[in-house]
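User: Structure tokens for this complex, please. No commentary.
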Amino acid sequence: MVKPHGDWLEAIAARAKVGIARVEAVLATHGIVPAPVPGTPRRLMLLEISFSGVKDGVIDGGPFEFQWTGLGPGLWGMLTDQNLRGKTSILEVVRWLIRGRPSSNLQDDVRRWIHKARLRFSLDAIAHEVSLETKDGIKGNLICLGPDASVAVLASFATEREFEAIMADFFLRAFNMDMLTTWRDSGESEESGQAVTHGWASFSGAMFIGTSYEVLLGDLPVAAGVNPRLMQMYLGVPWVSTLAVAKTAQQSVQKTAEFKMRRSRHAATAREARTAQITDQLQARRHELSRLPSDRHLREQLSSLTKDYAEMKRREQAFQQRIERDFSARTQVEAAYQENRRDLQAHLDSMAAGAVFRMLDPTYCPRCDHSISESRKKQEKATHACAVCGESIATSEDAEVLRAELEERVKASKTAYDKATISLQAAEHALIEAQNAVAAIQDELEETTSRLGTFSRRQELLTAIATLEGRLEEATFEAAPEDEVEADELPILNAIVDETDALVKEHREDLLKDVSSRLVEFARRFGMHSLSGASLKGNATLSLTKGGGATSYSKVTDGEKLRLKVATVLAMIEVAEKRKVGRHPGLLMIDSPGAQEVSPDDLDQLVAGLESVSATIPHIQVFVSSRTSAAITEHILAERRREALHGGFLW
Amino acid sequence: MNLRTPHRDAIRLLFSIRAGGEPVADNAMPDVVSVFRGEMRLLAFDFWIRNPDYLAAELLDLFDATGDATWYAAAKSIFDDEEPDIRRVPMIRYLFGAYERLDDALSLLRSRDLIRITGLKTKSKVQETDFLLTGKGMQLSKLCVTAAPILMWYADRAELVAKVAGDRGGTALKDRQYERASYAETKLGGIIPPIGPQVRLRLDELEERVGS
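Assistant:
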């Protein structure tokens, strides 16, 4: 039935579609070790229980010593006729010594009273003894007693931690058990959870049945998630520890991946929000910028205006120069005009004056005052030679020509004067226009320059936009997903879990079937006559058929639960014995149930049943603590019981 | 081209002699109508006729002194008619005032027996030169304004100058003209400058006073 290790590896590799080397790497990474060998039963049996110390603070205070020797297979009882007389403490001391750590059920004062404790037990017929002293801390040792009374100290301890480690190591090896690791979610959404390892302290719970009946096997709460594994391990199903480690690794990787994904989703959401925020800001800034007049445009305008200004200023100067020239020209022309008019006037006057004088003939010589002779006058008329001086007398014809010429000159100079005046006026007008234009350009320059005041705001915006663009780029940058290389890890783990789970199931279903039928048998012997069927599931739940109706472990009474718990353990032990597969040590210690939860009848029936079972399974050893009753004392021989009657104490 | 003819100068002088002369009724010289006393005075008359701006200044002085608006009106009409520009005949300043030899023009008048030149003489030097207007001269002066109306201006101007001069002698008139600052500043031998612009300004300033 045992599958070769190689087949398992190949099956995983094929399922995950990777190479065997890769599978081995993942197995190594997560410490997953193949455990193909089914558990084989080993028998634990108590031989002697003893402890001593000093009681204080109670009525029967003082030194005490409890010793119970000559123990062997079969049913043993611890009985009192009143409660709180030391029954539970005996069980708890045994538990302390087996686990290496006291359970929370061991009362603090009892723990303090005990100074020495010793437990001798046999493991497959080899005797061992664990003993401790609590004076000045804890110390003690674990020894092996040879058949020839030789003593071998297996280990010594000097602290509580050492004690627990030694006992765990010893029994886990002895029973060929592996630690069980389970995954526990952390409850916090931001955390992925953690792996929890269960060891001997948990496993040993299967040997002790206390007063809590919540779970079918062991004493860990359902929430710990360990019960199905615990059951499978006690059933001796192979691959259980492998499956447990693989599942834990699977969950760990899965949770981590989920956590990472969640974190990356958070990051993506945050990134989107931030991107949106930055984009909004960016849009607002860009909008504002677009509403500001372009600086470039302003500068171009300014440059153009400055050019215009220079040009207009140049024209203004040109007009001023032209005015000076025109003015000077007009002054000259005016002078000429006046001179021409003066000349014309002079000529006209002279002509008139000449004409008047010509009406008169000279009478006397102006030089000598002698009268002009008639002969001279005649000669003048004939020759146009002056009667006084003999010079030629100018005709009025010449004067007329001169007059016309002078008038022409006046006209010409007048025209020139008018032209010069018009030109000067035009120049003056143009100058005024140029001056107005210069003033207007100056105003526009000032206005434009004042608008340049928005320049600093513009710069601010440009800087802000550049910063935001940088932030946006940064915000939209998506970091490459981490651990890309390990992407095949989860599929491989899934394959490991699936393959291993298949192996576990293959072995388990048979065993569960056997155990289920046997536990019905035992439960009926314990008085559950209406129980007709039971089905123990791989997940450690127990379905029942009782009185023809379907029910389950969690729904029945505490008395029935107690009987089912015991029946389950006995069924497992019996099946293990028969098939040589299983890990239950064959020791069962049942604490007294409180009167409220379980009726004395239930207990009576249980004890009666146990008596008959111990006869059919010779090697089991069962301890029951209980209130004394006739029914019980009837089934447990006097030498097999420790009893405190009349309100007395067991120790 | 010399547009200045002695005829015009002669006509100008003839009207000055007529306007500034005193009537004469001397049986010894039955054809003499009036006498104009002093060559200096005649030169002063001629200066005012040839420089209408100086005359206008004198008229405004008279207006200032007397408040008689006719003086102002006369000055104004001189400028209104642009006389300082058109009627000005530049003359040289010599020694004691405006001086120009008038011999050519006077000889024209003398040769036609329009005037006669006489005067008081010492052994070496003429004390005073007088100009006598003959009946013929008077007749010609009247003929002038009908035959050549353009010459009427000279007649009227000479009358105005005579009114301005009054009974002041040549030296007084010369001194009067000499007072004109710019006149006085004229360099010896230089052309007497026009003072038209200053007088025009003054005229305009006074205009309000007259108008009111």
